[in-house]
Amino acid sequence: RATDEQSPVVTVLERIRDEVAPRHEGRVADFIPELAGADPDAFGIAAVSAHGRCYSAGDDAAAFTVQSMSKPFVYAMAIEERGLDDVHQHVGAEPSGEPFNAISLDELGRPENPMINAGAIVTTSLVHGAGPDGRFERIRTALSSFAGRSLSLDEDVYLSEAETGHRNRALGYLSLAGGVLEGSVEEAVQDYFRQCALSVTVLDLAVMAATLASGGVNPVTGERVVSRRTARHTLSVMSSCGMYDRAGEWALRVGIPAKSGVSGGILAAAPGSFGVGVFSPPLDGAGNSVRGVAALERLSEDYDLHMLRIP
Ligand code: GLN
User: Fold this and answer.
1) Pair (157, 224) in one structural domain
2) Where does this protein hold substrate (predicted)?
């Protein structure tokens, strides 16, 4: 993908990078041991317009794992395959107001929403696929279509989480007991770990977000990845649940549908205009990138990007 290096958009992104660089609060995630070695000073930001123009600043070539930012895309796949109502018989659509790894089951036995781990593991279990490898391969292919290039698995991060992710296994068993997880818990959890360990850059995140922002058509490749309705459903759930227990604060201060991941990435999709990807490993108490949140607050504020913008 060619990035436009002369554009004023790049000047904006560089200014934002310079503004947030001095922030040194937050901690790099270490509950997945393999993530602990991430460079706390790394910072990259990219934007992709609805016309497919790409802009970036900072460490735009740094690779990191997509982690929870895979959740909206697997949710979109499940909707495409089974329809919205079927999916929501298995998982709710309410902000949990709780951390990403919360033990979450509503009165119907469903995890609160598909953006927290419990709900995402259920969503993964709903995706079709012949055998466990078949399903992961379908997920990898779909996320690659959103990104517009073939994404590959970071084997070390996957194995590291597969060895230590017992809480996620427990969440899977709770959903099985609630009657909402389909098939085998271990297979669903393994595929969830693998989808989380797909390797991306900020440009990938920006293209993935821009594909949702463009109603399901990848603006760089021109491929229709999901329907317009599915893209809207996905953006809706991102806007209410994408930032875990900071979703309300995010709606107030940023107002752009977004999803964060513990690797320190955030992707944000401004409907009809563009997608943004940002990466900086140190996380705040909710598991959201400190500099990533600051950068998106800045961008929203300076350019009046709140989705409830009053014309
Ligand atoms: N793979 C991580 C987990 O399941 C993803 C969590 C996240 O990015 N918030 O714990």
Assistant:
1) no
2) 68, 117, 161, 168, 192, 244, 262
